[in-house]
Amino acid sequence: MWLTYVNRKIPIMRYFILAVAVIAMAGCRNFNWAPTDALEKVSTTPPNTVEAPVFAPAGGSYNATQNVTLTTSTPGATICYRNDGTNADCDNATATCFAGSTTYVGSINVPATITLNAMACKATMNNSVVATAVYTIDSTAPVISATAPAPGAYVTNTQVSYTLSESCGTGSITWTRTSGSPDPGSPRVQALVGAELTAGTHSAITLTNNPALVSGTVYDIAFNCTDAAGNAATTVTAAGVTFDNVAPVISGVAPITGSFRTNTQVSYALSEDCQTGTITWTRTGGAADGASPHAQTLVGLELTQGTKTNLTLANNPALVSGTIYTIDFNCQDFAGQNATTVTSTGVTFDNVAPIISGVAPLDSAFVSTTQVSYDLTEVCATASITWTRTGGSADPSSPHVQALTAGEMTAITHTNITITNNPTLIDGAVYQLDFNCTDSAGNVATTITRTNVTYDPSAVVISGVSPASSAFRNTTQVSYTLSENCASGNVTWTRTGGNPDPGSPRVQALTGTELNAGTKTNITLTNNPPLVDGAVYSVQFNCTDFAANASTPITVTNVTYDFTAPTITGTAPATGAFRNNNLVSFTYSENCASASITWTRTGGAADASSPHVQSVTGSDLNAGAHNGIIIANNPTLADGAVYTMAYACSDAAGNAATVISNTGITFDYTAPTVSISNLVNNSPLNTNKVLGSATDNLAGAITIEVQVDGGLFNAATGTPSWNFMLPTGAATWVNNTTHSIGARATDLAGNMSAVVTISVRKGNNHDVNGDGFPDLAIGGPNAPTTSTGKAYVFHGSSTGVIAATAIAANTVISGQAINDNFGRQLILADFNGDGFGDLAVSAIDNSASFGRVYVYNGSAAGLAAGASNFVAGTNAPSRVISGTSAEQLGSGLIAGNANNDGYADLIIGAVLNATQRGRFYAHFGGAGGVAAASSVTGQGEAVTAPRFSCSMALGDFNGDGNPDLAVGSEGHSTSAGRAYIYYGSAGTITGSLASFALSIYTGTASNFFGGSMAAGDLNGDGVTDLVVGGYGVTTNTGNIRVFYGVNGAGITLSGGAVPNATYTGEAANHYFATNMTIADTNADTFGDLIVGAHGSTVMSGRAYLFMGQAPNFPGGSATLATVRFLGDGGGFYQFGRAVAVTDINGDGRPDIFVGANFYNNPTYNGRVYGFFFPHAGPTFGATSRDNEITGSSAEEFGLSIGK
């Protein structure tokens, strides 16, 4: 809108300038002007500007279609409009509407909600401002639904609920009284405000304008609403709604508390009508009422407002006479409000007269007291008993009318009571007794009368009784004296000890003259008791006169009737027993007056004091079982002596028991001894069976038990020589773990030896027949001159290998085909966890150098179920693994726990894989033996002929508990050689290309570094160390490099790392480090290194033993070895071509075996030498061997020895 302003403080000239400026700007479209504080509005349209259009009717909400006209006060102006919500626009040059705007020519029909924008224009004048009008067309009335309270409802508050289909402009809820309590404020029209007018559901709300209703008033509630367009909703009315916020009141109830009633009538007053109500009679005492509580529902007029007097309910309860009730009055009004319960307690319902019964004394009774008995069916209000003399001694005070007191009038059985108002009767008088009672309702009981009752309070006296206390008797005769005649009497024998008497107590009635006054001496009663022999009794004498006066009982105690000699049973030690203590057991059938136990030596160690006659004393003489006791007079017996034990006893009557004798009882107080024979402390463990023996000072079976790792002791097999199988299956111990083994022996007398405990370190199981002696596997790969090859297994024994020639081996396996080179590599380990060592043998040239590996399971009979001579592939090998292409599968072969599950795993090398690139395959063991497929594999680097996997070793080089794998690659970098370490994780090794190994060490040209390797703990720090050989160093002098494992860090082979120690062979062409192995040969916890040098002394060969030590090896010449084993002097035997360690003689210390595969050159039979512990130094000739096994012609026996 254009505004013109005048500043009253500005001079006329300044006003003129302002006006000109305004006129100059009037031609600009959408120009806006607003007043300021200094300006005052004086007109609405600037000069030369068209007046804005005017809408008729004006914008707003309507409930019907509108016809809208547009006008402007400027004559001749054109009006343009738009109905799409955008501004209309007009060209003031031509007075025509711009595109999109419509020229107004007549009224505009508006049937629905719309926004109209209009502008007026005229040539030579400025356009008007845009005028806007919004029309809302709403012809639908709002709907009110889901109202509450419902018609006819009773409510305790003013909350309402309703749902509006749309928001309302105005609305109200009106409460109009229609009945009930007066409400001067009715009708109460309550306007809805704020959120109460919005569309949607309003549940249980209290209005802002909340009505003040009157309790007890009945209202019609009308809900009204009109929307913004003036559409009024249909009124919704809830008729007959009662507003009641006052709970009903119950008053004036009867029966009242503590009253007695003969009927079920009730009285009460209600302050208002009740919807529901009950009167409940609940039994609290008196007679039983199985139907209690009686909850009686009020019906009809019983629920109406007002007083009900002596009303018999429509639902009248069936009460039980004599029962005491609590009566609860309850009521709930129609608004759900509960009245406060009104309770009357202790209300007795009684419509039956009391009955007296069960009275005593009886007619013609004799009584010694004034006690009476009677039953009352209910409580009496008054009662009495009257004693009237009718004969006998005179009684001047008769009759005695004695009132009963409260407790004596209760509705119970009163038995033998002395009433509070007790009469003073005359001894010897005869009376009539009358019993009377009246209840609280005035009902009088029928009088009960007893006649001819004699009162006599004097008791009989008994004296002069026999037998006496603590007597032993063999008859049942008795003696006694009575002061007067008795009506009844008895003598009672009650068992108090000794033998059981099922008939006890034996109450023997006196009869005839036995009841008369006077003395009775040593009489046998007419009713004589059948007493039990050996039983102990108390004997009691009793008598009662005719007035029921009981004599004072006379009792004698501990009278024993004994006609039978005692018996002795349950004696121990039993005949033939072994005992390490003097505990005895026996059972006496009765108490003994005297007893003894006699030990008489009959054999074994001498006993000059025999026989030992020892008296039994004190409580040990008592009848019953005496188990595991040492008698007071305990004898000193001879260790190792054999005795007869005799038990004797005599009872108090002098009856002697039959003597019980137990013979051949050995007393042994010396513990046995036990030893472990095939293992010593810190032994490497290469068998799964522990062997041992036990000794005792006496002949007889000894029980041996074995404990592993501090657990429970379990029985070993055999005695005195014994054996025990260590855990198998999934429980098999993991390689290189340390375990304790304890043994103890127990002899027949229960003496237990001290526990002998050793510590062992788990290694591969070499014991194929499970006899506790590790076994030896040797290859002859060239046998029989055609390179078919053979493998030999020799069982260990206490003297080592018994066979002197290969063909005498316990098991001989031949290759399948010519040029197989069967036996080129061998390994012994328990792949299936059954406790027996299994044999893996490679035939590296099988199928044109594809290579093949055979696995045979061990058993109690040895390999292949005990077969002694067979061809590879027959006799059911547990697994046959064949190579692919010409890879020479089996050119490397090691075993150990690669995945820490206790089952030995087989790792196979194939040096010719992928044109001598080389590869290893890890086949995991399990309950089914070696897996057919490899679980992990690794391949050499892509260089010329690296011969990866020519040597391998397993160990934990970083001490993290996970197995790590070291792999040699002797041909890498023009035979410089290289070594790799794959660090395990999560309990298993991981493999891939050799270039991905975590540690790599490279030798120098022609070193053949990695041609051999061994792993073990050389410095005793608990972490595996690695030794790598390079037999080509310095013109085949050869050397070994020692790398110590570091806990948490492992072994660093890369980055120019320096070995911890290096040993070099003695001279050129010695080929030092052709083969090597590590084992603790002297059980000092340090791994010892055995190295072969088959070229020494013109190929005679040597082997070297470097004893492990802390902290580290110093390095230097091979001459520094602790022991040097010298080959035979014949020359060119290649002694040292193979080295291995196993405890072949089972003395707990590994033995060293050295192969000379060219022995007997030029026939090359081959020979293996065994050297038992201890290994004397500094040199040890081959001729000083402990075992010697010679192969057949040209087979190169000893080229390989299983490790």
Automatic annotation (TrEMBL):
The GH29D-like beta-sandwich domain sits at 57-132
Q: Does the keyword Glycoprotein apply?
A: yes
> Which residue stretches, if any, does this entry annotate as coiled coil?
none
| One GO CC term on file | integrin complex
- GO annotations under biological process? cell adhesion
Fetch the Pfam families from UniProt: CHB_HEX_C_1 (PF13290), FG-GAP (PF01839), FG-GAP_3 (PF13517)
GO MF term set: hydrolase activity
UniProt keywords, alphabetically: Glycoprotein, Hydrolase, Repeat, Signal
> What residue stretch is flagged as signal peptide?
none
Q: What is this protein called?
A: FG-GAP repeat protein
Origin species: Turneriella parva (strain ATCC BAA-1111 / DSM 21527 / NCTC 11395 / H)
